[in-house]
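Can you give me the bound-state structure? Components:
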Amino acid sequence: MSKESRMRASVNQKLTEMGERERLKELLRAKLTECGWKDQMKAHCKEVIKEKGLDHVTVEDLVVDITPKGRALVPDSVKKELLQRIRAFLAQHAT
Amino acid sequence: MKMEDMPLSGSDNTKLETLVHDIYSELVEDACLGLCFEVHRAVKQGYFFLDETDQESMKEFEIVDQPGLDIFGQVYNQWKNKECECPNCKRLIAASRFAPHLEKCLGMGRNSSRIANRRLATNNNMSKSESDQEDNDDLNDNDWSYGAEKKAKKRKSDKNQNSPRRSKSLKHKNGELGSTVSSETYKYTYNTGISYETLAPEEVRSLLTTQCGVISEHTKKMCTRPLLPDADAVEESDSFDIPDGQTLISHLQWEDSPDVSPTDSASSKASTNHSDSRKPKKKKRASLGLSSGGGASIGGSLTGGGSSSQSNIGLPAKKKRPKVPAPSISSIYDDLN
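Here's the bound-state model for the whole set.
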């Protein structure tokens, strides 16, 4: 499906070039902090650290533990809004 | 890079949706990774657990959420109803008013000496009863806030017409006037029964050559606006449409000849037609002003000449007005006296 992969590549390129990717990143970060997701995740991190010991914690430990939980804990409203924006961007610039 | 045109079919739609979701997942993962790096750095640098201490202190400083208390657990209006005894005058003063009261009472604050001096001045001018002193003390307690001062002024307005406080606010307005005028002025400006008949003509003249002098109907106070030479627009000239009969007429008749065209006869009728065509609007106002001005003292002197000459006079009066404000004013009030 090279056509598709080409399309994906060009979409990604456009996202980055137009600065939309950065804007979306910032938007997501702000919304997650606002809704308390960040604090929730930090609390979870504390548990992991206490479990693994303060001195021996590695990035990998955290990533492995946090990422799936983080993905699940994103509130629906935030998810919907982001999807909306991405779709709008594609509709405007991809066809 | 140009995109290939893709018709939107069912499979394409799902492909698009998948793409959208993929982009979304990428963004979320980015956010999670960012958080992990942040936390890991905080752990390794040692500031991750800084907001936690032993359990006891945690309980002590817990956020309080009860009615009537702030989040620290303190009562915020605890001192509202308490009263303190002043060591100087032995009175019971409300807690929030205590500090300003002490200032005045002990004579140590910035304003206290000013107030004391003012009080002495008023006491010298008018004899005051014991009760007045006490009321003034309360008045002065509100000195520092302009709003309270205004309220206090209103309340005591019947009582204290000549209080220095009034002159103080007026002095600010009259800053640009000479001090002699203002020192005279504030003696007169807030007497409820000010009338020009009670003042000597010289005083009236000096007063009115520098200030407006109009007595307000509502407050019975004299307007202390300084006279500005060209302030009045030509439009608001109704007051000046009352020409002082003899002086102004003689002035204008002398100036009148240039207006009359050489071909016309020197009759006033011709010049009326001439001015008619030029400024119909002003002619109407002039005659209005003149007819209403007849009621003032000067009406009698205008009867000579008939209506046409009247309108003739009215129009040039407007042109000439900026040059002769002062003499006409004093001559108007000469007539009054």
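A couple of observations. Chain A has five helices and no strands. The two ends of chain A are 18 Å apart (CA to CA).
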